[in-house]
Amino acid sequence: MLRRIACHFLFCLLCAPAGAAGVVHLILSDDGPAYQEVATAFRGGVGPWQSVKVWLLAELDVAQMQGLTRANDLLAPVGVKATRFVAENHVGRAPVLALMIPRATSEKLIWPAGLPRKHLSAVFIDQPPERSLALVQAVFPDARSVGLVVSPENDSVAKALVKVAARRNLRINVASVTGPEDLPPALRRVLSESDVLLLVPDSIAINAGNAQNVLLTTYRFRIPVVGFSQGLTKAGAVASVYSSPAQIGLQGGQFALRLNETGELPAPRHASENSIAFNPHVARSLGLVLPNEADIRSKLESTSE
Amino acid sequence: MVIHRSLIFICLVLAQPAQAQSELSETDFLAEMPTVLTASRLSQPLMDAPNSITVIDRKQIEASGYHNLADLFRLAPGMYVGFKKGWFHNVTHTFADQYARRMQVMVDGRSVYLPSIGGVRWDTLPIAIQDIERIEVVRGPNAASFGANAFTGIINIITRHPDDVAGRMLQIASGNHDRREALFRWAGRSERGSHRVSLGERQDDGFDDHHDDENSRMLNYRGEFELGSRENLSLQLGALWGNRGEGRITDVSFQPHDQAVKSSYFQADYQLLLPSGNKLLAKLFFNSLDTTEDVPVSLFPGAYYEADLLAQRWHTEIELDSSHGDDLRSAIGAYIRRDSVRSLLYYNDTDKLHVDSHGLFGHLEWRMANAWLLNTGIFWEDYEMVGSRFSPRATVHWQPSAQHSFRFGVSKAYRNPVLFETSADYRIRLLTADGLPISTQVPGFPDVLFPDILATGNVVPESIISRELGYIGQWPEQDITLDVRLFRERIANFIDVQCPTGKKGCKGRVGDPYRDWYNLEDVLQQGYEIQAKWHPAPNNMLMLNHAYLDIDTDIDYQEYSPPHMTGLHWMHRFGRGVDMTLSHYWVSSFTAIDQDRIASYRRLDARLAKSFHIKDMRGQIALTWQNLSGTYMDFHDSPRNAFDRRTNISFQLDF
After folding, report:
1. What value of ipTM does the predicted structure carry?
2. Per residue in A78-102, pLDDT tens?
3. Could you give all domains of chain B from N- to C-terminal order, each with its CATH number?
4. In chain B, fewer beta carbons within 10 Å around the N or the C end?
5. Which residue, B561, B568, B569, B613, is CA-closest to B589?
6. What CATH number was assigned to the domain covering residues A129-242+275-301?
7. Is B8 at the interface with chain A, CB within 8 A?
8. Do residue A110 and residue B8 have CB atoms under 8 angstroms apart?
9. Nearest chain A residue to B42, by CA
């Protein structure tokens, strides 16, 4: 009997894929439905050969975190809070795949010097500038100038958008705000010179707190808004392109699978899968004729990342 | 992304701690945002409106270069604009009349219609063209949405939100006919709200050979207060005062003199967004126009009579806008109003006369199916002296695609007689130069003359039943929009002043019957209005307005509005901040009510402007020419009304 078990065990060892990492530790910043969605989709993407252990950030203390980082298992923090916690307490060589965090925040994080590049990656929650502008042009083919209001934290995003816009024959009017009191005049100036306003998440320029004022002002100016989330579209943006938690989780799982197979994580990137939301009521009220939804999707798909 | 930790550690110790709250995180993407642009906040798109509406927006207002408010209406089809005097402007949609009483005219929803003699004194509105955001011209009746006297159309002038004009602005202008104008505006935010203050002054000599010069000083204020995330209060007040040249040397009983004008208003609008997304609105306003004049007569040296006229209106209303699911929107409301007038000359009374009215309104917008929309409404009003009436309306739209909308509608509306039509008792009381009754100077001469007009108050409101077919088309790829309206309107009980025998000129001697107001025969109006707009390039716009009106009636005035009116506008933005506008009008011959027939005319207006920057400030110089085509008689055939070429230069600075 023992012999059979031993053979079975040896057989299993031989059958297991090379470099099986064993466990992936998913660390959720919060137990809200979005994070659960990421976890579920991640499991689907990671495949049957790895097990996924889901932690809530609140459950982990510093010692436990440091312990996890000393092992070889992949750590996948979901959300900024969890990612920051991992970064601040990383004392080992565990690979890290951050999920559902904004690119700008991700670039500000500091990781241990010894951690190799191919063991650090992320799937961002925001959209690549190519895709945002592709949506603007697909929905508003006659637009020539796009307004953008950002604070310095989005400097790199603004620069990237300007570069991509130039290639697409679009002009971006950027207004920079350093505090909430700068916003109304900057918004007005940009709105009076633009055909469309593109919103990117920015703690000063657009957040749940001032969304009302921003959207009411754009409506008064009769300028349509392209947003970055389903929530913003429901609030009043004519169209948004966004990647859902499930889409991000699935891609994260695929990244983990690649790490398992090749020992390397793919480079950090924006989620490939995305969804588009429209607000037909606002479009109609502005007298806008939205192009066919299928056309818009195909135009977006044809943009390379 | 990989940075040497040791180096960074030192920097982190020296650097400010990161503010966790303001850092960008996934919650900014995932957050549920309150629906800001709820159905009740969204205005009805033009495609879905039950009338043909022309929107004259800020860009068009600036590009036109017009400095008289009335001139802006040349940009809408079917609108006749005429100047009876340099400062006395008429804007009408069918029914060109000196006292243009058949349109409802509002500023930010506040009616500026005069309850005394009807119509609008455009020259007394305390509003600067620079304060206007846009003008909505509704062509056709719509009492259910706009209340009483929305007879042949509605004009709603919407002023600019203080947030949209923050900063300071100075504009000075000068033109021929001794025209001077200056405007200073300041707008900014305080803790709880935004404010806009405008101060202006203008003068103009008017027509040559006409004693119609004007000068005015004006100030207005608008404040927007956010009382909470769901409550908003808007306050407005304004005043204008000045003088107007009146009278004619050739008129023995109306010699040249000055009319002093004082107009003022106050308005409060309260908006509450209910948790259900519905919106509650409450409005209160007060208007006052006081004109005072001593009219000299050449009959006796120094003799004159007073022609003072005071008109006031108090109005309050409440409205609830709701949406019921995705396909049904409704608005219901109620109002009460008091109109007051005082004039010894017009009403033979030193006390104020009041007319009270109240009413209810409601309308529904129901998307019955994807391509079918129903707009229906009803207005009920009880107007003292004439009783209560219902004004229903229904319009069905067929919208086979997002780009094309056809509509068929029927609408009924009433025009209540103004106080002069119900209660006129026009008696001249001549006074000596010292203000004593004339009999002290000319013994035996009556101190109170026979009434020229004595109203028995028997008139009933005019009514209009309008049937129209409309079409709105949009071709976004070519950037063309088209608005076509075909209409057939029957007006009953047309009110006019007449002698009992039916002849116009029965005034005169003792014993003669006095003129009174009567309801006369029906009028049938039919025709079409077209507006086409085309943007061949982003910096270019071409607009064509055309209207045709056929009038069939037995009343004396058979052609009271030009049968053909056409306007062609070209606006172009060159590089380096240079703008150019050319507008050409063709107006056919007609006879306005109580005026002389005028010949058809053409008129070419032009504007050239250059914008520039001086450090942080934005400036603009503009040259405008009105009527480059040659002098024509405006509104009334008389050499006094010869409208010649008007030139104007203006300089504006935003700082």
Report:
1. 0.85
2. 999 999 999 999 988 899 999 999 9
3. 37-654 (2.40.170.20)
4. C
5. B561
6. 3.40.50.2300
7. yes
8. yes
9. A285
Which residues 139-178 in chain B show a CB within 8 A of chain A? 161, 163-164, 166-167
DSSP state of B457: S
Name every chain A residue with its beta carbon within 8 A of the beta carbon of B5: 110, 112-113
Task: Give contacts of B 513-572 with A, CB under 8 A.
Answer: 538
Cβ of B42 within 8 Å of Cβ of A281? The answer is: yes
What are the distances in angstroms from CA B516 to CA A102, B351, B414, B490?
Answer: 78, 22, 20, 24
Q: Tell me the domain boundaries of chain A.
A: 13-125+246-270, 129-242+275-301
CB of B378 less than 8 A from some CB of A = no
* Of the candidates B45, B52, B55, the residue with the CA atom closest to the CA atom of residue B529: B52
Minimal Cα–Cα distance from A17 to chain B, Å? 30
- pLDDT for B512 equals 65
Helix and strand element counts for chain B (H, E): 6, 36
How far, CA to CA in Å, does B265 sit from each of A117, B106, B315? 71, 12, 11
Neighbours of B282 (CB within 10 A): 15
- Chain A residue numbers touching B34 (CB-CB < 8 A): 211-212, 235
Q: What is the mean pLDDT, run by run of 10 residues, along chain B of 655 residues?
A: 42 39 78 75 86 92 95 96 94 88 94 93 96 94 87 94 91 96 95 93 93 96 90 96 94 94 98 87 97 94 94 96 89 96 95 95 93 94 93 95 93 93 93 92 88 89 96 89 96 89 59 82 95 91 97 88 96 93 96 90 97 91 96 89 95 95
Give the separation between CA B53 and CA B59, rounded to whole angstroms.
Answer: 17
Q: Are B568 and B543 in contact (CB under 8 A)?
A: yes
pTM confidence score: 0.85
Q: B183 vs A78, A295, B619, B652, CA distance in Å?
A: 58, 50, 14, 9
Nearest-neighbour CA in chain B from A14: distance (Å): 36
CB nearest to A235's CB, from B34, B164, B477: B34
CATH class of A13-125+246-270: alpha beta
